[in-house]
Amino acid sequence: MPRETLTITDNRTGRTYDLPIDHGTIRATDLDQIRLADGDAGITSYDPGFKNTAACDSRITFLDGDRGILLYRGYPIEQLAEHSTYLETAYLLLDAQLPTTEQLDAWTYNITHHTILHENIKKFMEGFRHDAHPMGMLLSTVGALSSFYPRARDIFDSASRRRQIARLIAKMPTLAAFSYRHSVGLPYAYPDNRLSYTGNFLNMMFRMTELEYKPNPVLERALEVLFILHADHEQNCSTSAMRGVGSSLVDPYAAVAAAVAALYGPLHGGANEQVLHMLQEIGDVRRVPDFIKRVKGGEIRLMGFGHRIYKSYDPRAKIIKRMADQVFAVTGRNPLLDIALELERIALEDDYFVGRKLYPNVDFYSGLIYQAMGFPLRMFPVLFAIPRTVGWLAQWEEMLLDPERKIARPRQIYHGSPRRDYVPLLERS
Ligand code: ACO
């Protein structure tokens, strides 16, 4: 069988080149051989925002944006959301297979017994302003963990690597809840090892004076499902930050801090917070058509809509939308839901959105649920960062063990000034 190739003819020289195609991909470095003359710089590819560039070969998450398919290690997201738990899904992402009962018990025990933080972390949390954004606190405190675990630098020691992975998955909810409690002036609530991963997080967020906090099982499960849906999403902005920063071989706490920072932005994990601001600003179903007009005029974006990869309904948004009713049966209906439903109805019929294949993404409905559960808006990106930590770590470990690993270092096209001589200050006009 002849190998699949792409034949390129260089009009400048008349030479032709056969570039091998593997998995529908050519290697950008193969373009380097296309040059005018020996010694000249070869051709490079230009791809702002990496719209059509694969930066790695991965076996973790499959995404088909046209058909709305999302698989973790081959398992459909819908099945995991229905049958799995967050910790089981985390195990799957890291180890590529579903755990046996014994493996799951040992893994759950391991995570549960790493939830406590060093007491000094509380001390530097005290240094933040009372109104510090919890995402800013989370990204700095997770980075600071690096200084508590110097062995974390042994990234090629598999036992050390796995210990840091367990610590990070276990401690993120504690850091997140402590950040929130600081921002509202409440005493920190310590982890309760008798509770599930999400039950314990609700405990650390919301426990007041009761001796034993009992999470509502519907809300505990809803959070579990939301965590499963957010656990990984292949090479998005924050995962690329994790892989890119991790490729310098820094420890995983520093790399996760970089990933949290990337997630903080309003075009990524900050979008669910922006969705709620948008719905509050619209305020009334009758104002939806005017708002859509402003979006179509390019004045603003419809937050929670559109996705780089999904050009159909985000499968995670479908699951969240269905789950909303169960949550609202416990918490009461979020009054902003009607505005969201009307926005979606109009947008899905409008040529602007249909033509650009803009559909609700994971952030469109998740914020409504979080708000109904009692989470303040500023916690929304934090609620994304906690479950995404395992995705970042699975991708980081895959990157470290990849025989083709290289430090991330893209090229540029230079359009700046040509060489010129320095002009002394007083001689400048
Ligand atoms: N509202 C209005 N128009 C939009 C939107 C939107 N939410 N998203 C894209 N468009 C339009 C753009 O204006 C552009 O139109 P044009 O071709 O006339 O210039 C076209 O659709 C393509 O948009 P791009 O920005 O090129 O698409 P890209 O793939 O780069 O961006 C992104 C994807 C950032 C998610 C974008 O859709 C967006 O800003 N959405 C709103 C923010 C959001 O919800 N982010 C969360 C994403 S999910 C996640 O990160 C977990």
Oligomer: single chain
Give the ligands present: acetyl coenzyme *A
The number of strands is 5
Our measurement of the CA-to-CA distance between the termini, rounded to an integer number of angstroms, reads 68 Å
> What's the pLDDT, averaged over the residues?
95
Which H/E pattern describes the elements? Answer: EEEEEHHHHHHHHHHHHHHHHH
Low-confidence stretches: none
By secondary-structure content and strand pairing, the structural class works out as: mainly alpha
Characterize the biggest β-sheet.
3 strands, antiparallel
Helix/strand layout:
Blueprint (H helix, E strand, L loop, with lengths): L4 E5 L6 E5 L40 E4 L4 E4 L2 E2 H7 L2 H10 L5 H12 L6 H8 L7 H11 L13 H26 L13 H10 L10 H13 L7 H10 L5 H13 L6 H12 L5 H9 L18 H17 L5 H13 L1 H5 L7 H10 L7 H22 L28
Antiparallel strand pairs: 1-2, 3-4, 4-5
Helix pairs in contact: 1-8, 2-17, 5-6, 5-10, 6-7, 6-17, 7-8, 8-13, 9-10, 9-17, 10-17, 11-16, 13-16
The structure holds acetyl coenzyme *A.
What would you say this structure looks like, in words?
This protein is mainly α. The protein has 17 helices and 5 strands. It has a 3-stranded antiparallel beta sheet. It has a two-stranded antiparallel sheet with strand order 1-2. Helix 5 packs antiparallel against helix 10 (252-264), helix 10 crosses helix 17 (380-401) and helix 11 (271-282) crosses helix 16 (363-372). The longest helix is centred in the middle third of the chain and has 26 residues, at 158-183. 39% of the residues are buried. The model has no long low-confidence stretch (mean pLDDT 95). The protein binds acetyl coenzyme *A.
